[in-house]
Amino acid sequence: MKTSRFVLLAASLAFAGIAHAQQPAQPAAAPAAAPQQQQITPAQQAQLAKQDAEMTKAAAQVIQLVDQNKTGEVWEGASPVAKAVVTKEAFVQQITADRKTLGALAERKVVGVSRAFYEANNPQGLPAGTYITVAYASKFANAPQPVREIVSFHADDDKTWRVSGYSLR
Fold it and tell me: How far apart are CA 133 and CA 124, in angstroms?
């Protein structure tokens, strides 16, 4: 079975560790000598938990649109960084084909929320900025194993989080 390997930026954002829950954003360049675990206060942890809940809710809204075959609406509300990568027609066509191949949704569970910051000219080739990705383990009628469903968001210049990708793996 073939599923999408590239729809918007989500495929690039599906980096190792995406399934680990609630990781705080890491600085762009850590000291080379002694990497240390970043300590966060209880208040910061509460803020991260609140943001995770908000982004998970937003991801659920995106996936609901995809489930309703309204992928064009997802693209229309997407971040400019996403729109620069793929046309609306290609986005809709790829997701429609992938979902048709997978069949009806049987089950979906959130498996994690992750954060990443990319500087300009990063090795992944992503536009600079802050990203949050919500990953799901989703079971579909025609897939023998759960499929990773990923919704990514980018913090745009106006400080609004917008969809930067959706993919199935």
Answer: 15
Residue 126's CB: how many other CB atoms inside 10 A? Answer: 21
Give the tokens for residue 30.
């850590």
Residue 157 buriedness (CB in 10 A; 0-12 / 13-18 / 19+)? exposed
The residues near 107 (Cβ < 8 Å, ≥ 6 apart) are: 138, 139
Instruction: Give pLDDT tens digits for 49-107.
Output: 999 999 999 999 999 999 999 999 999 999 999 999 899 999 999 999 999 999 999 99
Considering only CA atoms, which of 22, 11, 13 is closest in space to residue 111? 22
Q: How distant, in Å, are the alpha carbons of 96, 137, 159 from that of 148?
A: 16, 5, 28
Q: Residue 83 in contact with residue 90, Cβ under 8 Å?
A: no
| pLDDT tens readout for residues 127-146 | 889 999 999 999 999 999 99
